[in-house]
Each structure stands twice: as C-alpha cells, then as structure tokens.
C-alpha cells in the first residue's frame, strides 16, 4: 500500500512538472482573454461561470471547437487563435484542474430520517433551506422537503408527462383536474429555470417520477419538478460547421425509459444518459451530418427500443427512421423514406432528384402498443419547390408511415400530398384515438395537415374515413377523392411567372402541438390563413447547402391570420374559431387540453392563454413577452397541478395561487 502511494505521489509530481513546462505559455493568454469573466482560477468571475468542471469533462478537440465558436448569445466571444496558441491555452486550462491524490472523491453522504419511518442513505446532490435532493447508491433520486428538525418528507409526481406529446398516442390531453374554469384566473408562475447557454428553445419538458428533463442543443437538465432546482446538467460542445435549424440550436426534447434519458445531438448522434446523474452511457452515430443531416428531434421509446428520425429535408438529406436498443445503442432496424433507384417505390420518382429526395422525419411519432405499430410523419420531397426532376408521387414523402415496432417493416402508408412542390411536410402530430365511428368502435388516427385538409384514418389499415378542408383560403385542390388523392385545381400563374397558392409554404398549420378532448369530441389546433407566391429554379444538390429549388414569398397587400380552431372530428366542421390579434409574426406555440374543459395555447403576441374548450371564450392569459417556439404541457407534483412550457430561454411553471 505504501509503495502504491509513493508511486502515485511521484507520478503526480512528474505530471505537474511536465504540465508546468508546457502550460505556462498559456497563462498570459488566459489572463488577458478569459480571467476577467471566469476568474483567475477558473472558479467564476464578474460576468462568467466556473469552467473547471466543463474543462475536465471535455476532450481537447471538443474544447477547442467550443472556444473557437464561442457563445455570442451569452456574451462569450469566439477565440481566434492558431493551433499552437490553442494548444498552449488548453494546456494551461488543464493545469488549472486540481490534481487529486488517489482515493475516494469528496462527497456529502448522509442518513436522513423520513416522516414515514424510513431512513434514506445516499449522497446529497443539492440542498436549500426547504428542500434536499438525495441520490442513493442504487442510483435513485429522492426529492425531499424539510418537515421540521432533522426530519424530511418525500415528494414526487402523481401524474407524469412521460413523452414529448404526453402519451404514446401523440395527444396533448391531460387528465389533471385541479385547474378548472372557475379557478384558472388564479394561475400564476411559481418557478422558472433559465437555460443560460440555450439559443432557440423548442423543448417540451418530460416529467417522470417527480423529475423534469428539459433540453436544448447538446444539453439536458434534470430538475426537481416542484421547484425547478437543478439536479444535474449534461452538455457537450456544439458542432462547429453545421447548417440549417440544428445550427440555430433547436432541439425538441428527450425520451426516458428505465434508468436512461435519450437525446439526439445537433450532429445526428443518439446518446443515452444515466437518469440519476447524467453520465454518458452510449453514443451512436445515426448519420453523417456533413451530408446535410440535422439532429433536432425528440425520440420516443417503444418496448426496449428508442426510435428517432432526422432533419435536413430542406437540404436534400435522404430521410429515414431508425430504432436502437436502449441498453447497447445498437441499431435494430432502419426504414428509408426515399427508396434508392431500382428499389420498390422508386418508380414514383422520375428523374435524378431521387438521389437527394429528402422526406425528413424530424418530428416525433406515435405508438399503439396493442397493434405494436409506430406511426411516423414524413416530410416533403426535395428540392422543395421544383418538381421537374422528380416526376411522380415521390414515395414515401408527405406520408403517415405505419411501421412494425419490432422490425421497422412497412404495414401501410397514406400520402397526403403526392408530388408536393409547396413544402407541405406531413410533420403535424399524428393523434391516435379509440372512439365510436358511425356507430361502431374504431381505432383512429387524426391529423390537421399542412396542406389545409383535416384527415381521419383507420389506423389498423390506413383506410381514409374523412377528409375535409379546415381553411377559408385554400385554392390548390377542391377536395380529396374517394381514392384518397387530392382533386387538383388549375393554379393562377401571375405576370411575374410566380404561382399564387393557398396555403403558403408555412402551411395551413405546422409542427406545433395539437390536442383532442374525448369529453368535448373536439380537436384543437392552430391554423394559418396565408397565401404565397411560389417560383422555381434549377438547383444542384451540394453538401452544406440548402436544396430548395425556388422561393416562396408573401403575396402583396395580403396579411395572414393565425387562429386557434376547434374541429368536430366526426364531421370536420369548425365548432369555433379564435383569431389572434397579432398579424405581424407567426409563432410556433401549440395546444394543450385538459379533462376539466380547458385549452391552453401559446398566442401569437407572446401570451400563454387558457380558453373554454366548449366555446373558445378566453378565461386567463399571462404575458410572457416571448415569441413561442414550444408548446405547453401539464403534470401533477406533490398533489399540485402545474402547467409548464419553454418560454424564450426559460422553463416556466404555473400553478394555482391564493385562497381556495
């Protein structure tokens, strides 16, 4: 034992000596460029956080990339240095991390008395005056509240929000009943959590066993769902040479199963983190981001598999959906949304565009555990606006894909917009409903599609049961035929050579969340009345570049209107319509409905609003003063119902305040 200790001391001394010789040259640069913000010892300064934990957990190549990119949105400028200077700076940063002698890490271990008679033993993760987080040796997080003296009581969630859409069926409907029409006026923010390094936040919080998981690009936070206090934080540097939405920092959320949290990174890796402490467990490459793939999707978990799609459709990345083993990260199956030449379905592509046919899968799908089918929406074909080199229907773009959950084999598909030339992805949420249909029980899939039509399908076989337009402005088709195909209209060609089309490229609706309330029989979604002028141009696919094949612009002197609409799923009739006053911008706030007859949504001007689900009457609103990029959700924690959403770069949680 003494000999091992001496070897450790001598080795550490030699390392320190060598490190001192190689890193002193980086000290001057650090003190000039970094110390004012991060402190001379790296423990945090006047305007910047402590950095040693990130330095110790990050590889040299990733750390160099992070320093060269910077984080301008958070006042961290990029560092422009050559490789030699960067190596000296990295060496000095490494030397700042304390060299620990062999032995166990310093931890705060305690045994705590719980009011129900239990004694919990473990490591204290975080602590405040009224709350404490304890991680046991079994890797379980216990959320505790002080109950006087040395005693604690444990708190957790009674109603979780375990997936991006709240449930396997893709329907943002909450059974929570504490907040109702009579008391919703007492709703107020009760905690907030800033995601300091985030830029464009589109995440939906996931709540499992009292812990909330939120994400931005390459980052995940685990929070106490009752206070917003951080439990752990995982991050890795952003990828330097990305393009598209992933380069803007978009990420829509995580999936949770068992002891793991799953995140898609900006450069299209799928990673698994330990649910108790955020440790990286595995890292699987889904696709080569240099071929225009992007990672922004919220995965789902299906019986031991984690399933995710990819972005990059507007850059010609060939779409696919893949499933991975939750334990090992090994790929189990993959379904390509665009066939290769000669494969089944390639006959629906006439021309060279099939090689970069897009069909991205960037939104979350739904799952029916009884049928064991995954339902996933696919995106538009590429190039977006020029169909000259892709004659035919262009399968399997703009579809709902029904795939066997175990094998990825195609059960059936339905294509909403064959040969799309207007960027009308089918990425709107596919909502699964079990209800009576024309007097008999039926398994349904409903979707308000970006092309302006509402659809009801039998999800066992894809049979079309109902299709009806939900827009006032819709000129590209007169209806949907009995064969399921749109009945096309002759479109107006303008003197400029452009085509006037309603809806516009943003669609009659888009990816933001929808909700169906079984009590009212109504389906709630955000609709856009907007037309565009479309033009096309010849465009060659290039790595790292958009692949649009034209442009779409606003028609002159035409304003657009965004509305919250309630639709009767049995008839397709609009039951009520709530236009939003702000017509200058279009936000991406979606919808949540609850069992007590409320609908919450992100309104265009930046308010979080609650309306009566029966008639759309506004009952409550709160001015967040942010443009919505995410949708609300709900959960019950410690017998209190919360409404939460990503607002700007902040997670905000609302609950009832004041007297009963």
Strands ordered across the widest β-sheet: 1-2-3-4-5
The CATH architecture assignment of the largest domain turns out to be: 8 Propeller
Instruction: Provide the domain count.
Output: 3
Alpha-carbon distance between the two ends? 66 Å
Q: Find the structural class using helix and strand composition.
A: mainly beta
Q: How large is the share of residues in beta strands?
A: 35-45%
Rounded radius of gyration (Å)? 26 Å
Tell me, rounded to a whole number, the average pLDDT.
91
| CATH homologous superfamily assignment of the largest domain | Quinoprotein alcohol dehydrogenase-like superfamily
The unreliable regions are 1-19
Give the count of helical stretches.
5
Query: What percent of the residues sit in helical stretches (DSSP H or I)?
Result: 10-25%
Architecture blueprint of SSEs:
Elements: H1 2-33, H2 35-38, H3 52-57, H4 60-69, H5 83-96, E1 109-114, E2 119-127, E3 131-135, E4 141-146, E5 151-155, E6 157-159, E7 173-174, E8 187-194, E9 206-208, E10 211-216, E11 219-224, E12 230-235, E13 255-257, E14 260-264, E15 269-274, E16 280-285, E17 300-302, E18 305-309, E19 320-325, E20 331-336, E21 366-368, E22 373-377, E23 399-404, E24 410-415, E25 431-437, E26 440-448, E27 453-458, E28 464-469, E29 477-480, E30 486-488, E31 492-493, E32 499-501, E33 515-517, E34 522-529, E35 532-536, E36 550-554, E37 561-568, E38 574-579, E39 591-594, E40 598-602, E41 607-612, E42 618-623, E43 633-637, E44 640-647, E45 650-656
Helix pairs in contact: 1-5
